[in-house]
């Protein structure tokens, strides 16, 4: 089993090669794999693209029929290494043979920059480059796995999308497709000599690229002479707006050849609240565009399978009946992404160790087993689960809790850096407890010993309650056992007058007064490099690069001594830009003025590049409570009641600035009393999934639905066409975890629980949560079986109807519906 490559390639990546072979009569099919992406053609017709993104030991081949084909061409793009192809041709007599390949390096593809995430490279194409001659291919690498595996997914659904409107602004040709689309772009028109730029835009005035100071997320470029042209992108592109400009006379057509996982819209939901109905609709659209060979967290930026799939898979099963993509996802995490005892992220490329994601993965495997009953897949994944838990066991403190895991990898938990993760993290240890309990259940199902895991879980539970009990709020939790409770003066350079989300550096000048001369300690923290001057003399400089994965620096500040003179002193900070958190925290014992002067500057010289503005210097305090901490604890069964959760839902979420990660439902205030008592909400739909799950589980459905209306209302009022990454329009505007409420609509309101379906048991616990009515379908089997529910509240109780498919047993709990309940069930 060897791959063939081309002479003349460098092997340094971002190279394209066309392979060609002839076929004798009687060929019926072909099995094909390529490093790394391919387009298979015969007679000018595209037969397919692939392969399934994966890594050893799970490399997959695709199969195509070859009726009447006498010649094949395969265009292969290697993002790294050398382009290479493997194929076996099937014959009518049942035999198979390896074709004789000829190849040519495609010089029309020019060197180009990487885009972002796992999207790959921009395509810089010279349209009139003459093709080279074909030469015999040469043997390339031999994969370590014994054989390629058959594609584990059904063929993609393909289609074509045209823009819903088009217009020009000066030299810019705009095409709006109405929502996020994903596929290969096809353009036809007339060019002049020179370069035509093809930009992929999420939104003209918002979204993550706009926040980073660009209109386009990334762009392809077409060059060469003028005249009529047709171009099809090789790589899949995802965008809402297409913008063309440059050497262009006119555009005759702009289309997208879409492709994606073949979803079947079997599940449904509607209720008396139009906002929830709208959210259901948009969630499904977003989920579908994020599903192809992977559960992509977003189709346009990352194109990667992070642990977002834990939420996506639940929604996809209840709505579409999808489990094969989930099975592949778990295998790719557990086998292809297992490194030195750690399950890394995203799957396949595995470039980072997200500590909490490794624990969520174990919960994910348990959920999959509960809904599928597939113990064979669990058995394959079990050694990796054991290995991951052994790795964690080596990082326990004497009380059994995990400690200092922020030194071992990135403890994500939520996309806010004001959540302290140092020492013993309550959120992380809640997930550790949940993973131990899940592993014990899986061990029991596999016939493996489970006592040790159960004992360790019980030990963690005992320690958890004593270590993380909040000293001021008896039913609530601290974020960590050792969070510094220090207050700081604080400035966010993006949110001041004249500020932006991008730049080189910014300077703060502030007056500091002292009654006597002498040394005073200055504590300070920033997310990137920082220089400090006092009265014109530089006291400190560090050149740290910006890092989005860095924890909150205010919990481990640096310090320097300020040699103050008696009277007034000028203190200056120069802080390097960080597009995620461009903030400065500082404190000292001297008298600090209530305001300072801020302006953008060059980093090296500190020379001003813009006007100076006076800004207030409010105090920043650590949050009193954090919703995400309580959400993880509640989800994993460590809360006895909902009181801890509802204590984290104030009437107002106060903040003193509208930063890039600050939810737009926050109330901005300068009132120091309000700011001193602030509660940190879930910053993303990811952490909100755990928080809302706990609210629903502990009987607070009305509070959960109100929270959904508050947070997702930001998206609805922003005229979302896809669900967002966060509660602002400054991040991704098409993010799969933004559709998390959909699973609550089906599992909590309609009440069809997913756990137990693998044993053909439907657990039915409906809860209208204050709604007048709700009805819909929930998929309960991989072959598309569904349960159908109708709930309606009347003046004297509730009408509840349930239809379930044959072969399922029912366990109902109607205690959450207003009594009396008139219950009708069909199908038993």
Brief account:
The mean pLDDT is 95. Strands 11, 12, 16, 17, 18, 19, 20, 21, 22 and 23 form a ten-stranded mixed beta sheet that branches. Strands 1, 3, 6, 8, 9, 14 and 15 form a seven-stranded mixed beta sheet that branches. Strands 28, 30, 31, 33, 35, 36 and 37 form a seven-stranded antiparallel beta sheet that branches. With 828 residues, this protein is of the alpha+beta class.
Count all strands and give the number: 49
| Average pLDDT metric | 95
Distance between the termini: 52 Å
Unreliable residue stretches:
none
Tally of individual helices = 14
> Quick one: biggest sheet?
10 strands, mixed
Q: What is the helix content?
A: 10-25%
Q: Which range does the strand content fall in?
A: 25-35%
Question: What quaternary form is this?
Answer: single chain
Radius of gyration: 29 Å
Structural class by sheet pairing and helices: alpha+beta
Structure description:
α5 packs parallel to α7, α6 (375-393) packs across α7 and α9 (627-635) crosses α12. This protein has 828 residues and is of the alpha+beta class. The two termini are 52 Å apart. The strands form ten sheets. Strands 11, 12, 16, 17, 18, 19, 20, 21, 22 and 23 form a ten-stranded mixed sheet that branches. Strands 1, 3, 6, 8, 9, 14 and 15 form a seven-stranded mixed sheet that branches. Strands 28, 30, 31, 33, 35, 36 and 37 form a seven-stranded antiparallel sheet that branches.
């Amino acid at each position: 089993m060897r791959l063939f490559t081309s002479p003349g390639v460098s092997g340094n990546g971002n190279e394209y090669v066309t392979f060609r072979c002839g076929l004798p009569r009687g060929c019926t099919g072909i099995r094909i794999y390529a490093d790394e992406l391919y387009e298979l053609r015969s007679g000018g017709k595209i037969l397919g693209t692939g392969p399934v993104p994966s890594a050893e030991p799970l490399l997959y081949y695709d199969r195509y029929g070859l009726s009447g084909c006498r010649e094949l061409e395969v265009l292969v793009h290697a993002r790294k290494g050398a382009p290479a192809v493997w194929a076996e041709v099937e014959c009518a007599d049942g035999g198979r043979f390896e074709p004789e390949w000829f190849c040519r390096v495609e010089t029309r593809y020019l060197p180009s920059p990487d885009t972002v995430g796992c999207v790959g490279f921009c395509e810089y194409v010279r349209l009139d480059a003459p093709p080279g001659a074909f030469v015999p291919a040469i043997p390339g690498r031999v994969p370590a796995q014994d054989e390629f595996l058959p594609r584990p997914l059904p063929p993609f659904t393909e289609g074509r999308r045209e823009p819903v409107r088009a217009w020009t602004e000066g030299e810019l040709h705009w095409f709006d497709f109405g929502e996020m689309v994903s596929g290969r772009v096809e353009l036809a028109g007339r060019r002049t000599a020179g370069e035509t730029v093809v930009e992929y835009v999420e939104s003209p005035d918002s979204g993550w690229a706009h926040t980073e100071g660009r209109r386009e997320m990334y762009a392809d470029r077409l060059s060469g002479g003028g005249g009529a042209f047709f171009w099809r992108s090789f790589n899949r592109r995802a965008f809402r707006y297409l913008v063309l400009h440059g050497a262009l006379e006119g555009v005759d057509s702009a289309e997208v050849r879409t492709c994606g996982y073949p979803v079947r819209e079997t599940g449904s939901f509607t209720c008396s609240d139009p906002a929830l109905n709208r959210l259901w609709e948009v969630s499904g659209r977003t989920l579908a565009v994020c599903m192809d060979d992977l559960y992509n967290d977003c189709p346009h930026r990352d194109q990667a399978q992070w642990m977002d799939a834990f939420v996506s898979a639940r929604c996809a099963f209840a709505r579409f009946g999808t489990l094969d993509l989930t099975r592949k996802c778990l295998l790719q995490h557990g086998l292809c992404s297992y490194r030195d005892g750690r399950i890394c992220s995203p799957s396949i490329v595995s470039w980072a160790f997200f500590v909490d994601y490794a624990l969520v993965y174990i919960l994910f495997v348990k959920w999959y087993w509960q809904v599928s009953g597939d113990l064979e897949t669990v058995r394959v994944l079990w050694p990796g689960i054991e290995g991951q838990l052994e790795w964690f066991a080596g990082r326990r403190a004497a009380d059994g809790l995990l400690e200092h895991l922020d030194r071992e990898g990135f403890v994500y938990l939520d996309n806010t850096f004001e959540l302290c993760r140092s020492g013993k993290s309550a959120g992380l240890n809640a997930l550790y407890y949940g993973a131990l309990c899940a592993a014990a259940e899986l061990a029991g199902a596999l016939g493996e010993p489970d006592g040790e895991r159960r004992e360790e879980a019980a030990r963690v539970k005992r320690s958890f309650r004593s270590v993380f009990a909040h000293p001021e709020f008896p039913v609530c939790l601290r974020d960590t056992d050792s969070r510094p409770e220090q207050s700081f003066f604080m400035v966010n350079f993006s949110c001041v007058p004249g500020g932006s989300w991008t730049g080189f550096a910014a300077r703060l000048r502030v007056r500091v007064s002292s009654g006597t001369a002498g040394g005073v300690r200055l504590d300070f923290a920033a997310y990137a490099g920082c220089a400090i001057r006092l009265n014109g003399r530089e006291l400190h400089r560090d050149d740290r690069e910006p890092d989005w994965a860095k924890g909150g620096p205010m919990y481990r500040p640096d310090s320097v001594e300020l040699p103050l003179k008696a009277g007034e002193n000028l203190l200056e900070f120069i802080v390097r830009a960080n597009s995620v958190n461009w903030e400065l925290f500082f404190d000292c014992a001297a008298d600090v003025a209530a305001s300072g002067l801020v302006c953008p500057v060059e980093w090296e010289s500190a020379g001003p590049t813009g006007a100076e503005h006076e800004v207030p210097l409010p105090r920043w305090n650590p949050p009193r409570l954090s919703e995400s901490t309580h959400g993880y604890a509640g989800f994993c069964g460590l809360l006895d009641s909902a009181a801890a959760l509802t204590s984290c839902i104030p009437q107002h979420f106060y903040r003193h600035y509208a930063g890039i990660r600050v939810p737009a439902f926050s109330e901005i205030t300068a009132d120091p009393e309000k700011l001193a008592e602030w509660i940190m909400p879930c910053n993303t739909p990811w952490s909100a999934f755990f928080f809302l799950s706990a609210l629903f589980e502990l009987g607070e459905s009305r509070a959960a639905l109100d929270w959904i209306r508050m947070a997702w209302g930001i998206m609805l009022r922003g005229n979302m066409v896809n669900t967002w990454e966060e509660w602002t329009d400054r991040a991704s505007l098409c993010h799969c975890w933004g559709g998390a409420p959909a699973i609550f609509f089906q599992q909590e309101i309609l009440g069809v629980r997913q756990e137990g379906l693998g044993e053909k048991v439907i657990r039915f616990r409906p809860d209208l949560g204050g709604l007048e009515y709700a009805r819909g379908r929930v998929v309960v089997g991989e072959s598309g079986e569904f349960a159908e529910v109708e709930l309606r509240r009347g003046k004297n109780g509730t009408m509840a109807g349930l239809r379930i498919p044959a072969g399922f047993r029912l366990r109902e709990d109607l205690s959450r519906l207003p009594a009396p309940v008139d219950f009708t069930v069909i199908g038993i």
